[in-house]
Design brief:
By secondary structure, this protein is an alpha/beta fold. It has helices at residues 8-22, 28-49, 68-72, 133-143, 180-185, 192-217, 229-249, 254-259; strands at 57-58, 63-64, 77-87, 107-114, 120-128, 156-158, 169-170. The chain folds into 2 domains: 8-60; 77-259, no CATH class. Residues 98-244 form the DDE Tnp4 domain.
């Protein structure tokens, strides 16, 4: 397997061959995303099997022999942490002001963690829309203190520039180019900080796509009915659970396929 991306024509050929063998048709962009994911897993495989990590090979199961602790440490970056605003229906009165976000609409903050497979693994729901991202994080850590999923030592959650850098949380450099399109339209990254930001942005894209699929599939999140706020929070939690269920059991789901 090549160590770099294929050429556009090569992605087309891979897609045609895959269609012929399986009957499933993917766009060149989808093929490229699948290739990138498989390449990451293949590199982990080579590290295990070909570089003699001591794990050995299980010929009965046709897989690598390693304990759970090794797999937990296999990747430095484990997941993504992200805050998104979800529309909230709040009755008129003094408390309503706290839920008015930057856009002037009433929202609730939803802080979520997702893995590289676009599954939600944690969510803190219901904080007022005016609350800063950092405060949402600290509130979640305190509120869920016994069960909050801190990243293991030596691993990190990718977070956006709204968070401070701290143990276990990896934010991009501020004041530098960040988004991948910035580099596509202009000069390539030419400083260590820009190179770091480009890689960070490309990885962070996973949780942005996860939230995009979630909101696209569950339109109720875009205009929340006038239920009690506790019910609105339950709707958010339920749609996240359904998001995971659909992704696990329906590989051809149209919304996930569009965002591959």
């Amino acid at each position: 397997m090549p160590s770099t991306h294929l050429t556009p024509s090569a992605y087309d050929e891979v897609g045609k061959e895959f269609l012929m063998r399986t009957g499933l048709e993917y766009t060149p962009k989808q093929v490229r995303n699948k290739w990138t994911k498989l390449k990451r897993e293949y590199n982990t495989f080579k590290k295990l099997k070909l570089r003699e990590t001591g794990g050995g090979w299980d010929f009965e199961k046709n897989t690598v022999k390693q304990d759970n602790e090794w797999w937990k440490k296999a990747k430095v970056v484990s997941s993504h942490a992200y805050v998104s605003h979800i529309r909230a229906s709040i009755p008129d009165g003094p408390p309503k002001v706290r839920y008015i976000g930057r856009t002037g609409m009433t929202t609730q903050n939803v802080r979520a963690i997702c893995d590289f497979d676009m599954h939600f693994t944690y969510a803190s729901i219901g904080q007022p829309g005016s609350m800063h991202d950092t405060n949402v994080l600290y509130h979640a850590i305190e509120k869920d203190k016994p069960s909050f999923p801190h990243p293991p030592k030596g691993k990190y959650y990718l977070v956006d520039a709204g968070y401070p850098n701290r143990d276990g949380y990896l934010a991009p450099y501020k004041g530098e180019r960040y988004h991948v399109p910035d580099f596509q339209r202009g000069a390539p990254p030419n400083t260590p900080k820009e190179k770091f930001n480009k890689i960070h942005s490309s990885k962070q894209n996973c949780i942005e796509r996860t939230f995009g699929v979630w909101k696209m599939k569950w339109q109720i999140l875009l205009k929340m009915p006038n239920y009690s706020f506790q019910t609105q929070m339950k709707i958010v939690a339920a749609t996240m659970t359904l998001h995971n269920y659909v992704h696990l059991h329906d590989k051809d789901d149209i919304h996930f396929v569009r965002c591959e």
